[in-house]
Specification:
Structural class: mainly alpha
Order of helices and strands: HHHHHHHHHHHHHH
Strand content: under 5%
Radius of gyration: 27 Å
Largest sheet: none
Number of strands: 0
Helix content: over 70%
Length: about 350
């Protein structure tokens, strides 16, 4: 059994340093972000230096970080938001890289173990059996312990994901502790499990998810809510005494929320801004800010009324509301970078 003590201590030290830094007067978002990105690599190399598993140390640190982020998200909101976006970006990049590396590794495994593959079919039988046992275990877990215990949900849970990839990686880490024959056999079996976990769901999900039209319905509903919301925002401008130039710019910005501006209107606005033909004075700039805030406030009130009267799903409202708050944060930028 692996001793988690060193991993937890290492993760706690990094967390304590990060929290002290973010609460000090020396905190700089760029420096903290760089440290945040380097943390997994730092923990990995430190763990390997003290001769413990670097991979497990990074996983442990990730679990510690989840609770850390939850209880310190308002200490530096800009930094937290940037961190979330970086996590999403790195997740997409690394997930794509993993499958590229994984494909190259599988090709090398098939070539280097061709003798085992064509010498006997034992590896194939064992691989199929292992994959079947994994499906049964995951299905039973979903039926017994997951909150949504429906049969279809359990099947989706058991079939979803790539199975055996972690085991394959761990097998390489113990290559020197087992015989070469056993190592080769495990590698080939795990390869079968991984390939099956990618092929079987690809076929079965087509039938299991065939009648699930929720995603399409939700997309249509979100588009409708956004359209009505922007309409309310534009209508609210009628109560304000705005100069024609400011009103045109504000309406353009509001319509951009639902991507209703044409490419031609974009280039027209871009040319006017670049050539400074809009001619907005400092006074008109303040007028533009107030008009946008007034319109966005009307849009937020519309969303609030929808949820209050149960006219839309809370998840749909939250998604649009979060986008609206991000748009409002651009208007409230203290450095006036976007106005």
């Amino acid at each position: 059994m692996v001793n988690d003590g060193p991993f937890i201590i290492l993760a706690f030290i990094v967390m304590a340093f990060r929290q002290y830094f973010v609460r000090s007067t020396s905190n700089v978002i760029s420096s903290q972000t760089l440290f945040y990105l380097l943390t997994p690599f730092l923990i990995y190399f430190l763990a390997e230096k003290i001769e413990v598993s670097g991979i497990i140390a990074v996983v442990t640190a990730g679990l510690v970080h989840n609770s850390e982020a939850n209880r310190s998200r308002f200490s530096s909101p800009r930094q937290m938001h940037l961190g979330i976006q970086l996590i999403n970006l790195m997740t997409e990049v690394l997930n794509s890289a993993v499958f590229v590396i994984f494909g190259i590794s599988l090709a090398r495994i098939l070539v280097s173990h061709s003798q085992i593959l064509f010498g006997s079919l034992t590896w194939l039988i064992v691989g199929v059996v292992v994959y079947g046992l994994l499906l049964i275990c995951r299905y039973l877990y979903a039926r017994l312990f997951v909150s949504d215990r429906r049969r279809k949900t359990a099947w989706l849970f058991s079939l979803g994901g790539v199975h055996g990839a972690v085991t394959l990686a761990m097998t390489f880490s113990i290559a020197n502790q087992i015989s070469l024959q056993l190592f080769n056999f495990i590698i080939v079996v795990e390869t079968v499990v991984i390939i099956l976990s990618m092929l079987v769901p690809t076929i079965l999900f087509k039938f299991l998810l065939l009648i699930d039209g929720d995603a399409e319905i939700r997309t249509t509903e979100l588009a409708r809510i956004r359209h009505d919301m922007v309409t309310k925002g534009i209508e609210s401008l009628e109560a304000m005494a705005l100069s024609p130039a400011v009103k045109a710019i504000v309406i353009y910005d509001l319509r951009d929320q639902i991507r209703k501006n044409t490419l031609g209107s974009f280039f027209e606005q871009w040319h006017a801004f670049t050539a400074n033909k809009a001619g907005l004075t400092k006074l008109q700039g303040g007028e533009q800010r107030r008009a946008l805030m007034h319109a966005l406030d009307a849009e937020r009130d519309y969303l609030f009324q929808l949820e209050k009267n149960h006219l839309a799903s809370s998840d749909d409202i939250d998604e649009i509301y979060s986008e609206l708050l991000l748009a409002e944060s651009l208007v409230l930028d203290p450095r006036n970078q976007m106005l």
